[in-house]
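Per-residue structure
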Amino acid sequence: MAEPALPHPHLAQVVPSALAALGVPDFSGTLGFPEISRGCVLLIDGLGRELLDTYAADAPVLAELAKGTLRVGYPSTTAAGLAAIGTGVAAGEHGMTGYSFELPGVGVLNALRWSSHEDGGDLRGAAPPREVQPLPTTFERAAAAGIHTSVVSAAQFKDTALTEAVQRGARYAGVHALGDLGAGILRALEPSPSFCYGYHGDLDLVGHLHGPGSMAWRFQLRQVDRLVESVVDGLPPGSMLAVVADHGMVTVRDKLDLEDEPELLDGVRAFGGEVRARHLYTEAGATADVLAAWRSVLGRRAWVRSREEAVEEGWFGPVSSRVLPRIGDVVAAARDEFGMVRGLAEAVETSLVGQHGSLTPAEQLVPLAIALG
């Protein structure tokens, strides 16, 4: 069996619960938020529960507010986390099944860049965002109910395909630094009723480059805590701020370069996923042999499952027929500090110190911090 299911609410429940607290019909308030007239969900990319607990002295405001814990589901990666926020469902339904995944007839899509994972070519035309993720977004549903709905995030993401796929329906307020992120959130909460989603990505970036828990990462965490404190201080009456994350992070110290292992390449026609969460798309008739080879070579360094086994074990939550082909014929999720790299094909990803994507509590569990105005 894979890592046991973690007994915590799913990240996908946060926005539906906030919208239920705002009185939006057809949303369930499973997290029990109080009735509000203004709400904001602020996502801090890469802030794991274990990391916050370990470095609570660097983030005293967040540590004090973070009374709850969420699980993010598999894969524990940004595309899936943002889609969970934007749709209110897990990966098996919204379809962002990895950092990269195969779309039948299109190829392997890098979901963050919306480009071919093989050659970097733009796939917006071949894979229209509204077709790849056709479910109505939480933002569209909130706006249709008369809620002033905003996304406050980096200006560079405003017109990206991923934004269209999972954040359409909101007014996009592009920002450039922590200062205007905080100010933008408070501006978005001025109307009543209102809902905003804020996003900060630099903690994740620093963790990838220097490692979670490094001095650079801890300094960035201190800035994030100051951001949260400033927003909390400015919350208007009747408002709620919920701070969450899309995944945690681990330092990878045990790397296996798949390109140096012919046994792991035999029968594999395409790779998806990332260093700690691999999709393997196999040649016709080769799935059983690929599954056996990967289990033999990786041993206890990873959970290795067939597509059918992973679905049955609930890795992706309920899986729709539309999404099923995007899951690898074989999937592999790293344990401990292990990483499955591709040194030539994925040179940048291979070089990163901090990684995520798998089933471990360090990656799966994130804080739920609540403040009321």
